[in-house]
Amino acid sequence: MARKIRVLIAKPGLDGHDRGAKVIARALRDAGMEVIYTGIRQTPEQIANTAIQEDVDIVGLSSLSGAHNNLFPKVVQILREKGAEDILVFGGGIVPVDDIPGLKKAGIREIFQPGASTEDITKYIKENVKTT
Amino acid sequence: MSKNIREEFERWGKTTLNKVISKAPEREPSFKTTSHIELRRLYTPLDVADLDYCDELGFPGESPFTRGVQPTMYRGRLWTMRQYAGFATPEETNKRYKYLLEHGQTGLSVAFDLPTQIGYDSDHPLSEGEVGKVGVAIDTLKDVEILFDGIPLDKVSTSMTINSTAAILLTMYIAMAEKQGVKSDVLQGTIQNDILKEYAARGTYIFPPLESMRIVTDIFAFCKNRVPRWNTISISGYHMREAGCTAVQEVAFTLADGIAYVEAAIRAGLDVDSFASRLAFFFCCHNTFIEEISKFRAARRLWAKIMKERFKAKKDESCMLRFHTQTAGCSLTAQQPDNNVVRVAFQALAAVLGGTQSLHTNSRDEAYALPTEDSVRLALRTQQLIAYESGVADMIDPFGGSYAVEALTDEIAKKSMEYIEKIEAMGGAIKAIESGYIQGEIGESAYQYQKEIETKKRIIVGLNQFQMEEEPLRDILRIKPEVEQYQKEKLAKVKKERNNTKVKETLAVLKKAAQGTDNVVPPILEAVKVYATLGEISDTLREVFGEYKER
Q: Do A96 and B476 touch (CB under 8 A)?
């Protein structure tokens, strides 16, 4: 039997807008996943450490403050340095479409933009995380 | 003799209405506002039969101010057109302010970047990637001097969206004005300074709640004497609404916060009539037109009642809920951005019909980025079109007396009061925030709203219905990465050229004041004058007050 998917929803940087992160965390829980939400004001180091400690399958990063180009790749980098490159990373918030190729190149698997539904995100995680 | 309304209404229901409903049901089994208030099909005099005009509506400029806080309202003076603006460097923001003033804006509103709001200088490790992104970067008085260069502070009122570091920005503004030869007693403006909603919904807190409240009440006391025309706080519902709460919750949580501030100020030894007239408020204006107009009227009536009955305010000015409004950012879509222009127009109109004192209209591209010049100009024009072409500013409270609006005003007031009483029974807003109650209510409403969108119970035009294939907007405002380096270099220069001994001295005086009970604002003023940085001042206070950690 497949175990539950474990997700970390995190807010890197100084941005305090957590409506989206909280709604997504709850929707993923309703869809049967184990979800940890970090709260706001996390550094990339804190996020990577929590992801490893909590043994999650995937990390969702939320940023609306425009600091995503700095912060999202750092999370991926630290996970790789700590030998946790199997933990997938995706993101969302306010991310201009022109920034997406650069983020993907840095290892962020997917970016969800304004208008994305919790259904889209749930589907994405279920399709990309193997639990058997 | 005229017919009996109730009998006629029932007859209408059984005949004319029934003829139609029995053949085809209405679009929904019931229609509810965002606050889950069930809307009647039709409001009639029966719904306002118990309304006591003089007691509950009264006249503009008199308690309970339901119809407006000034006797002439917009016939005397239009609302202030005050577009929230700020990005990148003080130099660039100064340009945008001049652009907006040139195009007819009538007041300034400053957006600061997150490091500035959270007490970090541009060279702090946590500021990396954040400098100048969501607002202008301010590290020292030098930046404020550049920000307001060529703008006469005795002629323009300025609202600053700043909370944990409000005392620092206020004193920098005062110091800047002094350099222009303008005395602090003529300065007009507002600082948001509403720390409670930061814990509940916005997140730019630094210190724990009680210590933060001390700074807030110190600011009230300081301004009473030194900056008497300044609005010392903008008690905000906007952010909680943006975080997902309903219109009723927005009123309830905002007024509950207001009660907490009044109580804190009284506990700190201030007489209610000495500060209450300088309290201001800040609300959102969302899409549900009639509900929003009613919401503003309900808020005014409730606050007047609270100030009179609970706090025994003697002056009418102490009971007046004056407010700024911003159209709802969370209602904007990235899809078909031109739709946002129309949304903002409806929302702005509702705010004006609701009697706002000051208004910010969002731009069409703000689901993507901070607005371009073209976008913000159209947003400003939206206000001017309402003011000069629609005619609604030529009479006071035109929707007053509408059966629907009066019924909804009553209903929102009633439901909000129930919430306020619940929060008071918990021990007040601070306790309700510390226990997570307010955050929980906001989160629940946000989740329900999202579910409604995803199940199509709530239609968002262009998003879950009437979609089209389109390219995302590409011509958006981008903050150049060089901004951060520029600010860091400027900061290094200021630190080199200032009198570092004096800076150390002022910070030591501040530390002592913070450790005791002296007002912290005068020492902060001395520190900013010698170019102590925002980060240094904040760190000094961090040493004494500690930092708040989210639950």
A: yes
pTM of the full predicted structure?
Answer: 0.97
Residues 249 through 308 of chain B touching chain A, CB cutoff 8 Å? none
Cis-peptide into A12, omega within 30 deg = no
What is the structure's pLDDT at A131?
78
The CA-to-CA distance between both ends of chain B, in Å, stands at 66
pLDDT at B2 over 80: no
Contact A23 B446 (CB under 8 A): yes
Q: Nearest chain A residue to B366 by CA: give it.
A: A94
| Phi/psi at A91 (5° precision) | -150, 175
d(CA B313, CA A75): 54
Written as six digits, the tokens of B423 are 């929060």
Residues constituting chain B: 551
End-to-end CA distance of chain A: 7
- Closest residue in B to A64 (Cα–Cα): B134
What's the rounded Cα separation, in Å, for the pair B287 and B481?
Answer: 36
* The predicted structure's pLDDT at residue B421: 98
Burial degree of B373 (CB within 10 A; 0-12, 13-18, 19+): middle
For B407, how many CA atoms within 13 A lie in the half-sphere containing its CB?
A: 17
Select from A13, A19, A65 the Cβ nearest to the Cβ of B446: A19
pLDDT tens-digit series, residues B471-507: 999 899 999 999 999 999 999 999 999 999 999 999 9
pLDDT over 60 at B1, yes or no: no
At residue A2, φ and ψ (nearest 5 deg) are -70, 135
B10-45 tens-digit pLDDT:
999 999 999 999 999 999 999 999 999 999 999 999
- Report the C-alpha gap between A90 and A111 in whole angstroms: 6
Tens of pLDDT, residues B134-184: 999 999 999 999 999 999 999 999 999 999 999 999 999 999 999 999 999
Q: What residues of chain B lie within 8 A of the CB of A94, using their CB?
A: 367-369
Query: Would you say residue A66 lies in a domain?
Result: yes
The residue of chain B with its CA nearest to that of A94 is B368
| CATH code of the domain containing A14 | 3.40.50.280
Q: Is A1 inside a domain boundary?
A: no
Domain count, chain A: 1
Domains delineated in chain B: 80-329+406-454 (3.20.20.240)
CA distance B52 to B49: 8
Residue type (1 letter), B443:
G
Chain A positions touching B450 (Cβ under 8 A) are: 23, 27, 118
CB B182 within 8 A of CB B127: no
Tokens of A82: 């700590």
- The CA distance from A10 to A56, in Å, is 12
For residue A17, pLDDT over 70 is answered with yes
Q: Are B528 and B172 in contact (CB under 8 A)?
A: yes
Domain that holds residue A66: 6-128
Q: Would you put residue B121 in left (φ > 0), alpha (ψ -120 to 50) or beta?
A: beta
ipTM, 2 decimals? 0.96
Phi, psi of B394 (to 5 degrees): -95, 0
Residue A29 lies in a domain: yes
Angle at B307 between CA B306 and CA B310, to 5 degrees: 60
Q: CA-CA distance, A34 to A11, in Å (whole number)?
A: 18
* Alpha-carbon gap, residue B503 to B435, rounded angstroms: 40
Maximum Cα–Cα distance for chain B, whole Å?
Answer: 88
